[in-house]
Amino acid sequence: MRILISNDDGIESEGLRALAAECAKEHEVYIAAPWHEQSGMAHALNVRRPIEVEEMPGVALELGAVAAWRIAGTPTDSVKLFLEALMDPNRPIDLVLSGINRGANLATDVLYSGTVGAAMEGYLHDMSAAAVSLDIDAEYPYELAAELVRPFLEEEMERRRVEKDAPFFLNVNFPARLASTEFAVSRLGRRDYENAFQQEVKEDGRIFYTVAGKILDSDNGPHTDLYTVDQGGISVTPLHADLTDYAAIEESRGK
Q1: Measuring CA to CA, which residue among 79, 81, 89, 76 is closest to residue 50?
Q2: Considering the entire predicted model, what is its pTM?
Q3: Which domains, ranges and CATH numbers included, belong to the chain?
Q4: DSSP string, the chain
């Protein structure tokens, strides 16, 4: 299997390296990741701005990958550029992975996540894709999360091949405390932030705001991703890119 690995923490991140090294044990791995951290970039794309690309043979050699590139752009830029410009068309990618992210991507935070955005770009290219994240306070290393997620994704790819199913788009979150190694299918919960902007006034009168705040989970009941990771489970949420409100369409047709 040929796997492309990207992220939003940057090519030097520990999580990406753990995931790439683990996947390279059994698969043909390629890396295309942002030059620097790009958290919160969602599905942002650079338009009409040249994007610098540098091949990193040392990184590829260290992690057992076929090739690695660092991209001076967003997570979406990294995946899109590789799939449309760098990839050998005779060796197409089978699976796009994004992560392992430093910190969870749960509930409505997936709308802001560069990790999820990179995976979505692979999905939009009709490829199976998964975003993988680890709680920032995890009591175990990225390497363990990588060891657990690789066989899970291999099984998903095999099931898709046998059943001739459509590509999948998954959001996987590992908890801080790992109570179970089972992967539990969960729906997105609802997460907001209290006092999200903190003001700072400089001596010269300039005003700055920094995004921060206390987490407020308003929908974290059973079967949500928030509940699953809180209980120490590994949450898997199937996603899709179609934002159409089909209920509203049906309602309008009924009028």
Answers
A1: 81
A2: 0.95
A3: 2-189+220-254 (3.40.1210.10)
A4: -EEEEE-SS-TT-HHHHHHHHHHTTTSEEEEEEESS--TT-TT----SS---EEE-HHHHHHHT-SEEEEESS-HHHHHHHIIIIIS-TTS--SEEEEEEEES---GGGGGT-HHHHHHHHHHHTT-EEEEEEE-TT-SS-HHHHHHHHHHHHHHHHHHHHHHTPPPPEEEEEE-SS-----EEE-B--EEEEET-EEEEE-TTS-EEEEE--EEEEEE--TTBHHHHHHTTPEEEEE--S----HHHHHHHHH-
What type of residue is 238?
P
How many angstroms separate the CA atoms of 102 and 7, rounded? 10
What is the rounded CA–CA span in Å between residue 134 and residue 141?
9
- Report the distance separating Cα 3 and Cα 24, nearest Å: 9
Residues in contact with 155: Cβ distance below 8 Å, sequence separation at least 6, in sequence order: none
- CA angle at residue 155 from 67 to 163, to 5 degrees? 110
Q: Say how many C-beta atoms besides its own lie within 10 A of residue 70's C-beta.
A: 21
pLDDT tens string, the chain, 255 residues long: the values are: 999 999 999 999 999 999 999 999 999 999 999 999 999 999 999 999 999 999 999 999 999 999 999 999 999 999 999 999 999 999 999 999 999 999 999 999 999 999 999 999 999 999 999 999 999 999 999 999 999 999 999 999 999 999 989 999 999 999 999 999 999 999 999 998 887 788 999 999 999 999 877 888 999 999 999 999 999 999 999 999 999 999 999 888 876
For the chain, the residue count is 255
